[in-house]
Design brief:
Layout: E1 5-6, E2 11-21, H1 24-31, H2 41-61, E3 72-77, H3 83-93, H4 102-107, H5 112-121, E4 127-131, H6 135-148, E5 154-161, H7 165-168, E6 185-193, E7 201-206, H8 214-217, E8 223-226, H9 231-237, E9 242-245, E10 254-257
Parallel strand pairs: 3-4, 3-5, 8-9
Antiparallel strand pairs: 1-7, 2-6, 2-7, 5-6, 7-10, 9-10
Helix pairs in contact: 2-5
């Protein structure tokens, strides 16, 4: 096994906030088919409002962020809202002429949540949205590396999920729930800062082989977990040293909280 090395100085977890909310009303509208199409945008408006409020709460709990116009923002989601895919699927199944509304693509991009929150909260630094099973892990790792390299003093890391029936059906291993039952929507935000401020440290460790967790896991009281849905919530709620191993094939990076 090759030696594990640290990416350098740790970031600090200065503040966090999380919310969960019921998707039943939105799923009920989707079950109506064409009759519910006009109400479909309500899901995204609801999610956007809750996402922005969660980020604002995390910033407040961190005691604010100096230099909001330079604060960076990285978000993660497994499936976004999947609204575009669902509407395309339903409309293409309909009899008669096939049509797609180009405006749907403007309003339901996965990055729309970050754009709306950044504009509302005045966060003017670079922003990124990562999508996929390892997105939360890679979002935190990206933020830690931005801080460690000196490119950013503060980075907001957030995640959101509000699955539609279309997205939930084929994804039993994702952030869903029992078949046919609406999962809860959720949003989580962390504020990471540079320097020796308050809050636990977050470090990225990299290893070419093995699980990459052997060194930090050797410390007494350290829990080792595999990254998955709700990673940011896990970090926000952790009350003890924690090591999280990336679940992505071929990646052996770890996050160390403590």
């Amino acid at each position: 096994m090759t030696a594990t090395r640290s990416d350098g100085a740790a970031a600090r977890l200065a503040g966090a906030a999380a919310v969960e909310f019921d998707l039943t009303a939105h799923w009920r509208e989707r079950a109506r088919g064409r009759e519910g199409w006009d109400n479909a945008p309500a899901l995204v408006r609801d999610l956007s409002t809750r996402f922005t409020a969660t980020v604002a709460e995390a910033i407040e709990r961190a005691g604010g962020v100096p230099g909001r116009t330079e604060t960076e923002f990285v978000a993660a989601t497994w499936y976004g809202t999947s609204h575009v895919a669902e509407v395309m699927h339903e409309q293409l199944r309909e009899a008669g002429p096939k049509w797609l509304d180009p405006e749907q693509f403007l309003h339901y991009s996965p990055h729309a949540m970050v754009s709306a929150a950044a504009l509302d909260l005045g966060l003017g630094g670079a922003s990124t949205t990562l999508v996929g099973p390892d997105a939360e892990f890679q979002a935190v790792a990206h933020a830690v590396r931005r801080i460690r390299s000196g490119r950013a003093a503060t980075v907001v890391v957030a995640e959101y999920e509000a699955l539609t029936p279309f997205a939930a059906a084929p994804c039993p291993d994702g952030p869903g729930t029992a078949a046919g039952a609406p999962p809860e929507g959720r949003a989580t935000a962390l504020v990471l800062t540079a320097g020796g401020g308050r809050g636990p440290s977050l470090t990225v460790r990299r290893s070419g082989d093995g699980d990459g967790a052997d060194v930090p896991a050797g410390r007494a009281g350290t829990t080792v977990r595999t990254a998955g849905p709700g990673l940011l919530r896990l970090l926000a709620d952790a009350a003890e040293p924690l090591v999280v191993v990336s679940r992505a094939a071929g990646l052996r990076d770890t996050l160390v909280l403590g």
